[in-house]
Specification:
By secondary structure, this protein is an alpha/beta fold. It contains 11 helices and 8 strands. β7, α9 and β8 form a beta-alpha-beta unit.
Length: about 325
């Protein structure tokens, strides 16, 4: 069910509207409560943890790390225990050997391993590339998932015409990724980061960020290309998602690029227990830049899903 409909085939980025810089974004540069463990591939994985209550496993998107969820966790209020890993090669987590060969499935394996550590099903929250990883992990370990909240999952393979997608939208995202790669090869990582951020948020968005935030995104520019390549390489069909009997809250920002919103629209037509909401005036990085607005939508969904879990446990 889609709460608000837009022309999702329109891939033009929205006119830039300044993206708020929430103080939580700067947690990327600060010391936060963390724990480290050895992941399923033998690499050291770092995880930000906060709060007490129902288990929430939150997975960040490209250019981020686990501590980026701090703002959303704080705005959700009491009753939630957040577990937020740094994906391979992000934050303080080690990279896999030969990272250029890494796949969405590799990252999903990390999430599945974490889910198996919990003594009860967890609520999954994901943004962008992290949301795409969660979709794959839910297919691997559906019995360990109480619900999924997915903000603009970058399941970019669903744009491929051979999977029923939209060729112009696919070409636009691939062109953006090529521009990032070309900038990085010329040693202009700041330009590569600007291409990505402005694609997601509108022209001028990158330059409106604080200098420290721009520097951090620039340092991640080469990895952005890898994440986009991984997202396109998946071969998961829409019919496989139709078997996920898990409550899903699928969120899109009304100011996000049409190509990204098109992916969510395709998923909304396949997931069997989904509510799809398009949030007015929000863009791709809203879970981090405007966590209060996103938390207001997520909180009642998580609470309702937790009541369902409690009823099932009592049955």
């Amino acid at each position: 069910m889609t709460a608000t409909l837009h022309n999702l085939a329109d891939s033009r980025p929205a006119e830039h509207k300044p993206v708020p810089t929430h103080p939580a974004l700067m947690a990327l540069m600060s010391h936060v409560p963390v724990q480290a463990f050895v992941g399923p591939r033998g690499t050291l994985v770092n995880m930000f943890t906060a709060g007490e209550g129902m288990p929430v496993l939150a997975v960040h998107g490209s250019g981020m790390q686990g501590s980026a969820w701090r703002g959303l966790q704080e705005h959700l209020g009491e009753g939630f225990r957040f577990h937020c890993p740094d994906l391979y090669g992000y934050g303080r987590s080690e990279s896999l050997p030969m990272p250029q060969r890494m796949t969405v499935e590799d990252n999903a394996g990390l999430v599945s391993a974490l889910l198996r550590r919990f003594d009860r099903p967890a609520h999954l929250v994901g943004h962008a590339f992290g949301a795409a990883v969660l979709l794959r992990a839910a297919l691997e370990t559906p019995g360990k998932v109480a619900s999924m909240t997915l903000y603009e999952p970058l399941a970019l393979h669903l744009l491929k015409p051979e999977l029923g997608g939209h060729a112009p939208a696919q070409r636009q995202v691939e062109s953006m990724a090529a521009d990032i790669r070309a900038a990085c090869l010329r040693g202009h990582s700041h330009l590569g980061a600007e291409v990505f951020y402005d694609f997601c948020n509108g022209p001028g968005a990158f330059q409106a960020l604080p200098q420290a935030r721009r520097a951090h995104l620039a340092s991640q520019a080469p990895r952005l290309c890898l994440d986009i390549a991984m997202a396109f390489q998946s071969h998961q069909s829409l019919t496989s998602y139709a078997g996920l009997k898990i409550p899903v809250l699928l969120l899109s920002g009304a100011r996000s690029p049409g190509a990204i919103r098109l992916v969510a629209e395709r998923l909304a037509g396949s997931l069997p227990m989904v509510r799809h909401a398009i949030l007015p005036d929000l863009s791709h990085f809203a879970p981090m830049s405007e966590p209060d607005a996103v938390a207001r939508v997520i909180r009642p969904f998580l609470q309702a899903c937790q009541r369902m879990v409690a009823l099932r446990d009592c049955a």
